Amino acid sequence: MNLRSLNKKTKIGVAAGAAVLLAGGIAGTAFAGGGDDDETDRPIPAADLEQASDAALAETGGGTVTETEVNDEESKYEVEVTMDDGTQIDVQLDENFNVVGTKSEGPGHDDD
């Protein structure tokens, strides 16, 4: 079967179907890109990890670093610290490892 043998209605239907598929793909990509930013999270590079961890642990007074992120929407670095009671504290740091904010979440809370 070639394109010349298709009648006009069939050609229009094929074109419309292709347009719908294309639009759906574009909308799906836009939706996926506009949702949770976990897909683009990058951990803090090894060269900065120790300094960022030390700053976050000093702010929280202890705990365990459980996750890190570069270029978080709120700061240059974000360090998640889990306390002994399970509370998670996100510590936001600027490019000089100064604390610019914190956010605490109760035990067992996980955004993933």
UniProtKB/TrEMBL annotation:
Keyword Transmembrane helix on entry: no
A Pfam cross-reference name: PepSY_2
Matching Gene3D superfamilies: 3.30.505.20
Ranges where the PepSY domain occurs: 18-97
Signal peptide: 1-32
Domain of life: Bacteria
Alphabetized InterPro entries for the sequence: PepSY (IPR025711)
Keywords: Signal
Protein name as it appears in the record: PepSY domain-containing protein
Species per Swiss-Prot/TrEMBL record: Nocardioides humilatus
Lineage: Bacteria, Bacillati, Actinomycetota, Actinomycetes, Propionibacteriales
